[in-house]
Every structure is written in C-alpha cells, then in structure tokens.
Recover the amino acids of this structure.
C-alpha cells in the first residue's frame, strides 16, 4: 500500500535529483517515508535520497518497492503549477499508479523492480576533510572549469578550499579561504573528478544554501545537502579519476 | 481596390491563426471586411476566418481576392512593435501590395490566387454537444495528452466534458464537470482526434477566454472563438480519426 | 609590462566588438591605453578599436603587442557578474596572462603575435556623406533587410537617408528624413553592402545612441561609435559589393 499527497515542486526537485544519474528507480516505501539508492550505468557515481513522511501532506505506506520511470513522471509533472498538489496511489493488482494533479488523472504503468538495477552497497568511507559552502559557489566553480578542461581538482590546503582545472595550455583556480566558506574541517587532501558527472550533480546541489563536501586524498567525494527544510536528505558519491602526470 | 490600416498585434494574431493550417491564402475582400477559408494540404482540417471592417482603423475595399504568402507577412511583421499600425494598399496593376509599418515600406509581390488551393466547401454539420471553456484549459489538456500519445479522445458523459489520451501503457484523463466549464449542452458523444493537428489549432485558441467546441459521435469537431472583442471570428473544423480497438 | 583592472561588462563589450570580424588579435599596449586593428579573413571588413587608459580602474603598460584568443577570453568572462572587476597581468617570461575575477584566477596562455595576421593599413578615405543616427534604428533596418535579401543598399538622397533591400520579388525600404536623424551631411551617394557583414557589425553598434556612418558612391562605408562614454572608440570599414543590374 502506498498513498501520498505532496507539493508538485518538491516532487519535481526530487525527480531532478535522481535523474542526474538514472532514468529508472526502485522507490522504497515504508511508514517513515520514501527512499532511493541508485548507481549510474557506468558505476562512477551513486545517489542516496530520503524524504520523510512529514514532507507529505498525507502519507500512508507499507514496506515495499515500486519501479518507476523518472522520465514519465517528469513529463506528467509538466502540467502542474508550482503550487499544485500531487496525489499518488498505488494499485497493487493492476501494477500501476494513479496520479492526480488538479483535474488531471494519470494512470502510470509501473516497472517490475526486478528489471531495474539493484540498489548499490554504499561504501563506508572516512573522509578527513569537510567543506561546507553555498551551492551557487560550487556551481560557478564547476562552470568555470568546464570552459578549460573535462576534469577538475578539488582540494584543501591549510585553511583554503580550492578547485582547479587545467587544459592543454590554460588553467583556472578558485581559492575559497575559510572566511568565504560556511565551515571547514581542513586536512591536506586532493582528488580529481570528471566534470561530466560533477556538472550534472552540481545542478540540484546549487539550489541549496549549505552543501557539505567530504574529501580525501584520491578518494571519492561525498556531496550532501538537504531539501524541504531538512525533511529530505540527498547524498552523492563520485569516484575519483586517476591523475596522469 | 484594397486599402487598410490595422494594429500590428491583431494582424499578427490573424496570420498565426491561418498559418496553423496553410502557408498561402486567398484573402477575400469586400466592403464589409476580410475573410479566408482554407483547408490543410492533407484535407484533415479547415479554417474559416472573418475580420469585420470595424477591426481596422481605416478600411476601403472592393469585392476581390488577393493571394498572400503568410510566411512573408509574418517576416515583415517582425519589425513591428506591439502598438505599431500597419498600412496596406493593393497595387492592382503591378500585382503587389505596399505595406508600411512606421518608417518602413515594403513592396510584397502577390501570388496568383488561381495557383492557391481553392476554398473548401464548409460542410453543414449538426453536432449535438456543445462545450464552452477557457482556452488555457483546453491547451493544458492537449499538452498533457501529447506526453502520452499522438491522439486524444474528446467526449461528454452526463454533465462532464472529458479529454483522454492513452499510450501503450499509460493513460491521462481530464474531467471538467459543468461547474468548471463556462457552459455545456450535454449529449453522450465521443470522437478521437490527431494531436498533430489539435496541438497546433489550440495555440491560437488558448488566448481566448471562451472557446466553443461542438462535438458529435465519431464526427468532426468544431472549435470556434472570437478575436478583437468579437469583431473577428475563427472557426476550425477537424476530422476525427478512426478508433482502433 | 601590462597590468590593468577593468569592469567586466566593458571588457565583454570590447571582446564582442572585435569578435565580429576575428577570433585572434594582436593587442597593442602603451602607456595611453590599448588598441587593436584587424581585418577579417576574407579582407572585406576592418575594425579599429581604442580604449584609453582612463577606462581602466588601474592601468600600467609599456609599448608592446600581446597575442590573444578572443574565444577563450569570452569563455572566461562567462563567470563574471556585470559589476565584477577583471584584473589582468602579463607574465612576460612564461608568455601567459593572469586574469582574476572575484575569487577566480585564470592562467591564459598567449598566442605568438607573429602567427596572427598582420595589422591592416587603414585606407584614408574622404567620404562625402555623413549620417548620425541611433544604433537601434540602424539595427532594425538591417534586420528587416535580412528577411528579404542578402545585401542592402544604403544611400542619401536630398535630405533623406535611406536603406533598401530587394529580393527576387519583394522590396523593403526605410526612409529616415533629417528630422529622424541626429545629424546629416547630405550628398547624393549610394553603395551596396553584404548583409552577412552588416548584421554582425550592427550588433555592437546598436547599443550606441550615436552611430556615425560615412558613405560615398560605391565606396566602403565607415561605421564609427564610442563606448564607455567616449573613452573608447570603434571604427568599422566595410567594402561595398558590386551592384548587378
């Protein structure tokens, strides 16, 4: 059983967060809320997503798993105004979901969860450096790097968080000292990341005032932020690229 | 003889209404105003368009027929501001039309009307159901249907006007009961239409507060609305598609 | 030595003015400011550009020549907000330029000036007619002409400046009498120009309230305007096309 009502804009943000890495998801439901874990087809990046039942206007759910095509939901949400409510109800027998937005009613066929890639095991990583910054600062740095290169170095040195990209002949560097960050737990670390992934991930993150980065030396980066005033949590994990000297 | 002055925005709307179905028109002129009847190349949809002489700032015309390329007029109107006046004058001897917009003067060569498809005979249809609704409601329904399918069912059942589209696996339905419509003359009818056509037609109609639909059982649909505060009248007729069960 | 600070928007406008004709420039520096002379690859149009040292917040330069890739600078300026300052400093030993915008620092490799096309000799032309008009009027005329043809006639007749374009069948003409111009030194002249070039040149010129055109009979046109309240000067020279009767 799954029956829920939610703001259209919050559902749309949630879909965008997941669409960055995958087109189809296994949505896990429980009486506490909904959650998703997914890994991109190339096994380079993971996302974990949780939205508490309190983010919904109404919420009733059993433990379960629902297979969803994100592109279709995104299409359906196209008719919604920002302030519309979306009502969803699972029809277990017919394996579809009813979705109502205003006077519109959709019947969306579900995917068989067993045909969707299994949930990844999220590795337990202890990453020594932590940087908390505004999402727009992160996005500007990534956009600047894209003009120069297809990968980007993120690091901490003394009390400065830096992002650096190097092309064949040119270089760009952004230094954000502690006083331009929200918080910093420094450690001498640096890792290189693919801008293909980073620029996609940074789009939803850029809406957040507080993005938490966890960095290690040539280790994956964790990018965490909250949505819906903390009722929802998003975590990306992106593998590093090997630096060729 | 044909000489007329008209608001640029009204001429632009008129061109858009006709361009939905055809690129070239036979413009019929008389002392009462202008009118066009046209059918699309595939014979699936027709448009009738009338604009009374009172919609013009100045208007003088004999009975006549002028062959016009709508794309060219649309290009010319690109230089006009919303509040500009457009002055047009037929030069019968040289078979062209002078068009003045602000300090710009155009000389537009005319098409020989005999090279343009003849005016269609508009069939006399008695359609039992009539639905009057806001143009934006109609457009939202068509946009929702396009995400799911390439055709769309329009029907009336009891006191509810409904629009439904069904894809291979998914379905969308919009129910508008009488109290969400401007007016309804109910009758148990339904017809299926191609979204290719419907979505084009609905664009100009969506600007109107009152769009009148006339529906029958597996019959063409009439879509009528007014422009320029009722001084102009637009009627589309769209043939139904066969429902394959 | 070259070290300068300038408003991002002014640098962006300068890059746009030059990019219309060339991708790479030899930037000439002196204690008075910067200047560029360039000719397009097809030898049809030239640009001269001067920006006085007083247009900069800080400016220190020796006589010199710097080879720049305009596309790269334009990319870099993508991160700047309208009110950002751009700090540039030449590193003579490493043949690159440091560019700082906010917290961003770029290292831009320079081009060897000897690999860039030489500065053109600007011909001394005495053109009898001079028209001073608003840049937006010029741009509207060029846009109207583009809909009809790929070349455009500019001329003066009595006290009227006119622009005319003729397609296979249609014609557009804009007459601007003296009272719709800022100033006019009349002379009976006309020349034909390629709209390919004219429409590019007119884009930056359209931002200026006063564009000075100098015209002769089948001679090149000079298009001059100022930027930064007169601290910068821009001059385009565009060769005429032969009129085929």
């Amino acid at each position: 059983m799954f029956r829920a009502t939610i703001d259209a804009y919050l559902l749309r943000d949630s879909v965008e967060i997941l669409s960055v890495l995958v087109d189809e998801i296994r949505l896990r439901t429980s009486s506490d809320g909904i959650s998703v874990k997914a890994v991109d087809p190339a096994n380079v990046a993971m996302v974990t997503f949780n939205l508490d039942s309190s983010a919904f206007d109404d919420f009733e759910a059993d433990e379960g798993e629902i297979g969803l095509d994100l592109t279709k939901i995104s299409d359906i949400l196209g008719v919604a105004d920002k302030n519309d409510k979306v009502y969803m109800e699972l029809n277990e027998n017919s394996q579809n979901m009813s979705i109502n937005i205003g006077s519109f009613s959709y019947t969306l066929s579900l995917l068989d969860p067993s045909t969707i890639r299994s949930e990844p095991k999220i590795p337990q990583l202890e990453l020594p450096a932590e940087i908390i910054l505004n999402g727009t600062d992160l996005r500007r740095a990534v956009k600047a790097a894209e003009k120069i290169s297809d990968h980007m170095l993120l690091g901490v040195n003394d009390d400065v968080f830096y992002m650096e990209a190097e092309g064949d002949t040119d270089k760009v560097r952004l230094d954000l000292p502690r006083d331009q960050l929200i918080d910093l737990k420094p450690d001498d670390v640096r890792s290189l990341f693919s801008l293909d992934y980073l620029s996609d991930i940074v789009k939803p993150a850029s809406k957040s005032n507080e993005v938490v980065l966890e960095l290690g030396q040539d280790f994956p980066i964790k990018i965490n932020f909250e949505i819906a005033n903390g009722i929802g949590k998003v975590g990306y994990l992106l593998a590093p690229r090997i630096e060729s000297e």
